[in-house]
Amino acid sequence: MNRTPLYEGHVAAGAKLVDFAGWEMPIQYSGAVDEYQTVRTAAGLFDVSHMGRVLVSGPGALAFLQRTTTNDAAKLAVLESHYSMLCNASGGIKDDIFVYRIKPQEYYLCVNASNREKIVAWLKEQLPGTAGVAIRDRSAEIAQLALQGPASRAILSDLGVRDLTSLNPRHCLEATLLGAPSLVTRTGYTGELGYELYVPADKALGIWNELLNRGKSAGLKPAGLGARDLLRLEMAYLLYGNDISEDTTPLEAGADWVVNFQKGDFIGRDRLSRQQTEGPARRLIAFELLQKAVPRHGCKILAHSHSEGKEIGEVTSGNLSPLLQKGIGLGYVTPAFASVGATISIDIRGKVVPAVVVKPPFYKRARG
Amino acid sequence: MEPTNLRYHEEHEWIRVEGRQATLGISNFAQDALGDIVFIELPKTGTVVTAGQQIGEVESTKTTSSIYTPVSGTIVKINPDLKDHPEVVNSDPYGEGWMAVIDLSDPKQVDGLMTAAQYDTFLASNK
Asked: How is chain A split into domains, by residue range?
């Protein structure tokens, strides 16, 4: 199994390790709920080095990204990033990614761990269509940490990173962390104020340890994949392999806002454009259960709140929200049931539990 | 080593027998494997149950797991604290995290369950 440069740090912190997409990753340290609360109230430090970091560079880089991704990469200023998708010719999602423009002609794509090899190979297959582009998988050279939570800014400032107050969401800055040239981005997967740190792999463990030491007084703790899944679900952020796949499109998944039909042609555009005109046959919804139970991936969604309700879709993610203390989830339903306030029910291993479609996210952070 | 005053079942439940009554819970191994427990569904008191039957479910942040009874009888009491504090099963699986009390209809069934030493061997052989 693959190990990230932070593996020793996880063992030292008493992590419970699991196989995640071929990586030996921490699912929890102190406990998923405790780590969740820590991120919502103080700060948590995640190792997300298992994700892929692919550099797309050269004079043709922008044209290449315009053709292979759904969002309009021409809108990115230097040191700005955005969420985007890579689709196949049928409009199915090959991966959901973050695109960081780090230099005028250099972009980093942060891709899912489970898709990295597939995406690197696919991007290389697309190279003949655009001149002046180089693709390099730099995942092994760079480690990626996510420092997330209301205390994250103070902790990072304490490590000597300046200008964090003027760093807006999705923007990046170059910084030196313990002498190592690093990229600090205001991005994350938790819904909290937070940063991701792209650091040289050989310096990652030192930076991890230093952050945990310095952040201890502010409540910082290491946080694992269990907490990360609770945090992202409360934000209704999509999880590849659960909520989206090559069999679902961005429009079905409610990610219309990252599909730009005005920018010119891109892979999957024709099918997506047709789907937009005709309307997708199913839509991703967020729902809350009206009685205490826990919906899970694969549970059937039924029309109305009685057992005779016909099947209208399937749950793709579900858990008990630590915040709401209710079962919450995401799932696909036929469009007639996709409006906020619609009454549905979830078949949880034979027990039919009433639910209501709600407007995501489940968690709304107080601004200030 | 697990507590020696309890008997254990392959599905990782334990029981503690006092007279004709057995208190039931899940083992330390089970709670550790499940991770943070967030919700527990238990049968109503008065429910008649048969050995091997599923009587409830434990929901953790990771997964759902069934609770089986290793003995037959009638549920006479359930732990009322687990409704609001299911996490007690994580912190004290053999004490405050007990789940139900069963009035045994066939106390001899207990002899078929594992002792602590046997359960330890069972866990070691399943690693």
From this structure: 7-48+140-234, 52-137, 281-358
Specify the amino acid at residue A266.
Answer: F
C-alpha A165/C-alpha A154 separation (Å) is: 10
Partner-chain residue, chosen from A16, A31, A294, that has the shortest CB–CB distance to B64? A294
On whether residue B117 sits in a domain, the answer given is no
> Would an 8 Å CB–CB cutoff place B62 in contact with chain A?
yes
Q: What's chain A's average pLDDT?
A: 96
Q: How far, in Å, are B15, B39, B45, B90 from residue B82 at the CA level?
A: 17, 8, 15, 11
Rounded to 5 degrees, what are φ and ψ at A197? -115, 120
Chain B closest-CA separation from residue A236 CA (Å): 16
Q: Quick check: B35 and A293 CB within 8 A?
A: no
For residue A51, give the DSSP letter.
S
Domain A281-358: which CATH class?
mainly beta
Across the interface, whether the CB atoms of A226 and B35 are under 8 A apart is answered yes
Two tokens at B33?
């494997």
Cβ burial, residue A358 (10 Å; 0-12/13-18/19+): middle
Averaged confidence pLDDT in chain B:
95
Q: Which residues have a Cβ under 8 Å from the Cβ of B76 and sit 6 or more positions away?
A: B21, B45, B46, B101, B102, B103
pTM over 0.90: yes
Instruction: Verify whether the Cβ–Cβ distance A226 to B61 is below 8 Å.
Output: yes
Tell the CATH superfamily of the A7-48+140-234 domain: Probable tRNA modification gtpase trme; domain 1 (3.30.1360.120)
Residue range A84-121, pLDDT digits in tens:
999 999 999 999 999 999 999 999 999 999 999 999 99
Q: Is the pLDDT of residue A280 over 90?
A: yes
- What pLDDT, on a 0 to 100 scale, did the predictor assign at position A129? 86
Q: Which of residues 319-348 of A touch B (CB under 8 A)?
A: 319-320, 322
Q: If 0-12 CB within 10 Å is exposed, 13-18 middle and 19+ buried, where does residue A217 land?
A: exposed
In the CATH hierarchy, which fold is given to the domain comprising A52-137?
Alpha-Beta Plaits (3.30.70)
In this predicted structure, what is the pLDDT of residue A239?
98
Average pLDDT for residues B66-87, to the nearest whole number?
A: 97
Q: CATH number of the domain at B24, please.
A: 2.40.50.100
Q: Locate the chain A residue with the closest alpha carbon to B38.
A: A320
| Number of structural domains chain B divides into | 1
